[in-house]
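Posted in: Structural Biology > Protein-Ligand Complexes

Title: Requesting predicted complex, iron/sulfur cluster in pocket

I'd be grateful if someone could produce the 3D structure tokens for the following input. Sequence and ligand are given below.
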Amino acid sequence: MAATTREERIASHERNLKWQQPPLRIDMSICINCDTCLRHCPPQFGAIFNHGIDVIIVPELCSGCGKCLPPVCPVDCILSDPDWTPAPDGWWKYPGGPDDPYP
Ligand code: SF4
Ligand code: SF4
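-- Reply #1 --
Done. Output follows.
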């Protein structure tokens, strides 16, 4: 599967192989949980979620587009993650789930 749509990426847990940029990750030790990045992630990617008290980026859904970077993130705690590892199973309940913030 090419995982060209968000639906396909959610189903397959795969990134779109055509994406040139690595995914981003949030340094949770700096993040102030303001949720601004979540509201700025384009819905066709829809990669940022609340996870308990943390804010997370599901790397398989993140294109690396950079729309969440400063000035959107006020504390500059979103970093490129070229050595990313797959999202833990527990993160996959959010995309496509009842509380998915990206309709
Ligand atoms: S880089 Fe783009 S796709 Fe990835 S989390 Fe930020 S806004 Fe969303
Ligand atoms: S915008 Fe930055 S500080 Fe705010 S929730 Fe996102 S990563 Fe955390």
